[in-house]
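Progress note, sequence design subtask.
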């Protein structure tokens, strides 16, 4: 969902119950980013980085209560918003709220497609690893 101020919310959920805590879900999510990009990007030192080093595509604050603040990076127009992971015995979710993407128009569609692809892979992986 896109807001008038240009920020977006993205909710991906699956009817996959899991006993994994948010920190475990987060680790699986970052690993799926690495796997989905064939190792070209990975989460290191609080950021998604090319080759795990530089440049910083997205930077995040510390993990607090199953969420991380989005603190900036090349793909962010400005700092703001959060990413979070939740699971209960019925559903698992990855939730982005208030993210201000740098890219717009057709370029944003590519970024949104990539996020959707990673979220789907993440949810499928949670299903495989918990059942």
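Output:
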């Amino acid at each position: 969902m896109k807001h008038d101020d240009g920020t977006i919310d993205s909710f991906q959920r699956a009817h996959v119950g899991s006993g994994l805590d948010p920190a475990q879900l987060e680790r699986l999510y970052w690993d799926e980013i690495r796997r989905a990009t064939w190792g070209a990007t990975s989460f290191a030192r609080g950021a998604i980085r090319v080759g795990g080093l530089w440049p910083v595509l997205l930077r995040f604050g510390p993990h607090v209560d199953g969420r991380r603040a989005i603190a900036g990076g090349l793909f962010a127009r400005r700092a703001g918003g959060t990413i979070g992971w939740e699971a209960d015995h019925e559903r698992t979710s990855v939730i982005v709220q208030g993210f201000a993407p740098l890219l717009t128009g057709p370029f944003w569609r590519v970024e949104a497609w990539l996020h959707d692809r990673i979220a789907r892979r993440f949810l499928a992986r949670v299903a495989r690893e918990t059942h």
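The chain is about 30% helix and 30% strand. Work on this subtask will continue into the next period as scheduled.
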